[in-house]
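stage 2 :: seqdesign
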């Protein structure tokens, strides 16, 4: 039908045949975000001349109520059966517009979204004419696709109302509690034998200065009181099969070797002949092969360190009968879950040998070690002593293992330096400076920093307090790393820190100190195994990656696998808990109805075209997304490809190899692509201002 006739017909309110596309085109100014660059009226006017375009409008905010009403009215009153919208990001408003279509009685997948803000106005703001032409071409391609679009239905699957939380630090605990309170079953798996993660290692925490362990205990007690939560410590995920809503996860659990608690636990630990580096105190003390990391830990009983226990049996001799069993074996079991929260946390950066004196001089320690040293329950009962002497001069050097510069700092095993800011260490160092001042009122304290980033509410107070507390600040530049070296034997202080201080216009200063504290950054805990099991990916900083840092900040690219806390990047406790609650909200929204709805954009096999070549199965990167199945019909046996939609991510690799063109991705069929490519390259109608 000639295009003028289509438009005339629409104006006259006539109804063409049902299957004939009647496309509504809407161009959003997005305030001025798009409209300040792209001539939106002109784009709408020009697109209105294309075949099958029944209405074409521009509007200041298509996502506003009047904007949405305009679309709904056109659907109801003008018989619009395809919608093309040029607006901001699809991530922001795809759901908004799908719901608009649904409310108006149209299949929500008969809508195509063109990103005019990110792809046009923001990147071409200096060339409005070209931006307008690009908008017309991109939307013309969308219209070409719309002509070929077919209604789709989401993939609907039953789901277990049960979530797996991996990691029992503050983030994992928070997520587990939130999930359980929404009525979901939760299995929490913690690798170590105790709950709480790193937070248990700090005595007090900024920005409230509360005692960390009692605060953590409050959360742990709430988790323990929740009947919906099952906790497995000393446990790790060994494998998983399935997909969102239906994972079967295998968990491998190490035995504790000790049953419950008993009165003479100290005596039992005393007789153990093995001494090991105490991880809880970052090696500042030793522990036995039967141990507990700290007094109030949960679970509270002792545990055997199987790696180092020689099974000499001394402990069994003195413990009440049956309480210790050195023959216990690890065991495996499975859980059926609908979604997974990864809350595997962080580890402090480990400096290289000799990096600012690390391991070269015993008087160089890290910030986490300083925390343990100053802890009243720590290895020196909170006294600020080193090597048996009170510390009188101390230098805290910031940004060790953070904000590194390529070519200046040594790279990690993967060849990358840690160029990110670890965010937590500035405030943690400043809070330690004030604690040192309390414990050693006459000590000289130096904070040697690149920039102070006390970015959170009340964090700046720590900077102000340290300044008032006579802490001396010296500022270095990243490429001029402070140097730590041994002082003369007769010198009063064992170490010298040389720094070019840019607060005194680049003066080179040498400070004699008793102790150097390296304010080390955060790195992710190594979770290569989990990345492979759940197919999640890390970012360039090695932390687990979210889909979009702003719009989908806790979801991974794998549906049903979400992130909580510092597994995703450096965060303080407040941020870790906020992320953990967000993760719990995402998971419960996904599975609490006992079913999941997935996008319909998955591979589809045309059984009449498929000859069972199996090429698609060979190239498919997803496990169990497509397989060959044997069928019998009229005494004939043959094979055909069959898709499991829940496992398919719609990548389309199978489409490209099928020799019979029997495969397509729903919603992104080859004929739709071809139409789009042709439209984008075709001549466009003349528009005012094009010359
Ligand atoms: C020196 C220092 C001082 C700090 N002081 C403060 C402060 O005062 N205030 C503040 O707000 N924040 C502070 N922080 C930050 C705070 O420690 C973190 O925000 C918090 O610990 C993050 O909790 P999380 O649960 O994400 O990670 P973690 O505490 O690291 O917990 C992760 C848990 O996951 C477990 N795990 C790891 N891998 C696996 C696996 N494969 N399977 C099962 N379990 C696994 C680990 O054993 C651990 O128990 C400080 C950080 C540092 C480095």
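stage 2 :: out
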């Amino acid at each position: 039908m000639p295009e003028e006739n289509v438009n005339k017909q629409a104006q006259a309110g006539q109804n063409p045949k049902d299957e004939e596309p009647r496309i509504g085109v809407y161009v959003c100014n997005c305030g001025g975000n798009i409209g300040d660059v792209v001539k939106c009226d002109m784009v709408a006017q020009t697109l209105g001349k294309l075949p099958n375009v029944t209405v074409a409008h521009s509007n200041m905010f298509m996502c506003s109520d009047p904007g949405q009403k305009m679309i709904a009215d056109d659907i109801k009153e003008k018989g619009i059966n395809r919608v093309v919208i040029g607006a901001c990001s699809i991530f922001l408003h795809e759901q908004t517009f799908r719901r608009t279509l649904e409310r108006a009685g149209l299949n929500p997948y008969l809508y195509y979204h063109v990103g005019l803000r990110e792809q046009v106005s923001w990147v071409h703001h200096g060339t409005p004419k070209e931006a307008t032409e690009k908008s017309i071409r991109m939307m013309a391609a969308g219209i070409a696709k719309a002509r070929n679009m077919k209604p789709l239905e989401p993939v609907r699957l039953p789901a277990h109302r049960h979530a797996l939380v991996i990691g029992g630090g503050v983030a994992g605990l928070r997520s587990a509690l939130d999930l359980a309170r929404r009525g979901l079953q939760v299995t929490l798996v913690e690798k170590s034998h105790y709950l709480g993660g790193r937070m248990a290692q700090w005595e007090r925490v900024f920005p409230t200065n509360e005692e960390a362990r009692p605060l953590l205990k409050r959360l742990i007690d709430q988790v323990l009181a929740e009947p919906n939560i099952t906790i497995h410590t000393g446990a790790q995920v060994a494998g998983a099969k399935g997909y969102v809503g239906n994972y079967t996860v295998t968990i491998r659990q190490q035995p504790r070797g000790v049953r419950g608690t008993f009165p003479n636990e100290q005596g039992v630990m005393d007789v153990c002949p093995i001494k090991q580096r105490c991880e809880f105190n970052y090696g500042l003390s030793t522990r036995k092969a039967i141990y507990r990391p700290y007094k109030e830990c949960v679970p509270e009983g002792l545990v055997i360190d199987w790696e180092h226990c020689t099974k000499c049996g001394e402990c069994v001799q003195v413990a009440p009968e049956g309480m210790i069993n050195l023959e216990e074996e690890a065991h495996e079991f499975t859980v059926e879950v609908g979604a997974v929260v990864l809350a595997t946390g962080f580890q402090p950066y480990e400096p290289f040998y000799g990096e600012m004196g690390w391991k070269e001089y015993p008087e160089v320690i890290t910030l986490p070690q300083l925390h343990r040293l100053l802890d009243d329950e720590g290895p020196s009962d909170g006294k600020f002593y080193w090597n048996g002497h009170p510390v009188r001069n101390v230098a805290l050097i910031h940004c060790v293992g953070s904000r590194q510069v390529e070519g200046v700092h040594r790279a990690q095993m993967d060849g990358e330096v840690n160029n990110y800011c670890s965010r937590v260490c500035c405030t943690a160092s400043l809070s330690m400076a004030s604690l040192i001042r309390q414990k050693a009122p006459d000590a000289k304290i130096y904070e040697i920093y690149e920039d102070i980033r006390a970015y959170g509410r009340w964090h700046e107070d720590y900077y102000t307090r340290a300044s008032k507390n006579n802490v001396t600040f010296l500022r270095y530049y990243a490429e001029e790393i402070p140097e730590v070296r041994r002082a003369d034997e007769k010198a009063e202080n064992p170490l010298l820190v040389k720094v070019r201080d840019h607060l005194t216009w680049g003066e080179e200063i040498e400070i004699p100190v008793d102790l150097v504290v390296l304010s080390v950054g955060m790195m992710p805990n190594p979770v290569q195994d989990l990345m492979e099991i759940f197919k999640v990916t890390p970012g360039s900083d090695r932390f687990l990656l979210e889909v979009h840092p702003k719009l989908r900040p806790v979801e991974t690219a794998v549906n049903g696998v979400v992130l909580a806390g510092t597994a995703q990047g450096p965060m303080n406790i407040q941020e870790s808990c906020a992320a953990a609650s967000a993760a719990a909200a995402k998971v419960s929204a996904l599975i609490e109805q006992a079913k999941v709805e997935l996008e319909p954009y998955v591979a589809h096999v045309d059984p009449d075209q498929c000859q069972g070549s199996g090429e698609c199965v060979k190239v498919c990167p997803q496990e169990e997304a497509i397989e060959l199945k044997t069928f019998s019909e009229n005494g004939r046996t043959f094979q055909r490809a069959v898709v499991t939609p829940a496992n398919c991510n719609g990548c389309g690799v199978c489409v490209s190899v099928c020799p019979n063109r029997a495969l397509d991705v729903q919603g992104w069929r080859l004929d739709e692509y071809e139409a789009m490519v042709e439209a984008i390259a075709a001549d466009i109608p003349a528009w005012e201002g094009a010359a």
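stage 3 :: structure notes
- The radius of gyration is 32 Å.
- The domain at 603-666 is CATH 3.30.70.20 (Alpha-Beta Plaits).
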